[in-house]
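Reminder to self: C-alpha cells first, then the designed residues, so the page reads top to bottom the way the pipeline ran.
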C-alpha cells in the first residue's frame, strides 16, 4: 500500500513538473520580485533611512573611524525596491571633541559615504552631528562643595546610540525631474485699493 501511495505521489510530481516546463510557468526568484537585473537609474537626492548598529561616542571614537549602518526602510525607485532593508551602509567619523572641564560637553559628527546594493555600492551624502549634555549645574555644585576643584567637573559624552536613525541621500545618478512650472497665459486681474 505504501509503495502504491509513493508511486502515485511521484507520478503527480512528475506531471506537475512537466506541465510547468511545457507552459513556461515558474515562480519568480526573490531578486526578480525586488529589483530588475539591470542596475537602476539612480535618482540623486533619493532619501535613505539608516540605523546605527553599534554605539559610537565621543569618549572612544576618533576622526577617520569607520561606522557600519543598516538600511532601515526599503529604497524604491519607480515603485521597485532597489535597496532592501538590512543592506549595509557606511559612514565615517569626521570630527570628535571630548568632554572638558567646566562642564564642557563632547561632540561627534558622522559623514555618510555609501550603501551596498546588488550592483555594488552607491554613494551617499549627508552628515549628522550630536553633542553631550552640558553640566553647568554640576560645575556650580562642585565649586560650592569643593571650591575651584569643582571647575574640573566635565560635561556629558556625545553618543550615537544603537538603533538611532539617520537619514541620508543618494549622491549619484540623474537629478530628479519636477513638475514643469505653470505660467498663466492670461494677465491677472488688476489689483483694487
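Designed residues (193 positions):
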Amino acid at each position: 500500500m505504501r509503495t502504491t501511495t509513493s508511486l502515485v505521489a511521484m507520478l503527480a510530481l512528475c506531471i506537475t513538473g512537466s506541465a510547468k516546463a511545457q507552459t513556461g510557468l515558474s515562480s519568480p526568484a526573490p531578486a526578480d520580485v525586488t529589483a530588475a537585473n539591470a542596475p537602476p537609474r539612480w535618482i540623486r537626492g533619493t532619501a535613505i533611512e539608516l540605523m546605527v548598529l553599534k554605539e559610537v561616542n565621543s569618549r572612544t571614537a576618533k576622526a577617520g573611524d569607520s561606522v557600519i549602518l543598516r538600511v532601515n526602510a526599503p529604497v524604491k525607485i519607480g515603485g521597485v525596491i532597489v535597496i532592501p532593508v538590512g543592506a549595509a551602509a557606511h559612514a565615517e567619523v569626521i570630527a570628535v571633541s571630548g568632554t572638558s572641564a567646566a562642564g564642557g560637553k563632547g561632540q561627534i559628527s558622522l559623514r555618510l559615504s555609501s550603501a551596498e546594493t546588488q550592483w555594488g555600492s552607491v554613494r551617499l551624502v549627508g552628515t549628522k552631528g550630536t553633542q553631550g549634555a552640558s553640566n553647568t549645574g554640576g560645575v556650580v555644585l562642585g565649586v560650592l562643595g569643593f571650591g575651584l576643584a569643582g571647575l574640573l567637573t566635565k560635561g556629558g559624552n556625545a553618543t550615537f546610540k544603537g538603533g538611532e536613525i539617520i537619514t541620508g541621500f543618494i549622491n549619484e545618478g540623474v537629478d530628479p525631474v519636477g513638475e514643469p512650472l505653470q505660467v498663466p497665459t492670461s494677465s491677472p486681474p488688476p489689483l483694487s485699493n
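Residues 46-170 form a domain with the Lipocalin fold (CATH 2.40.128).
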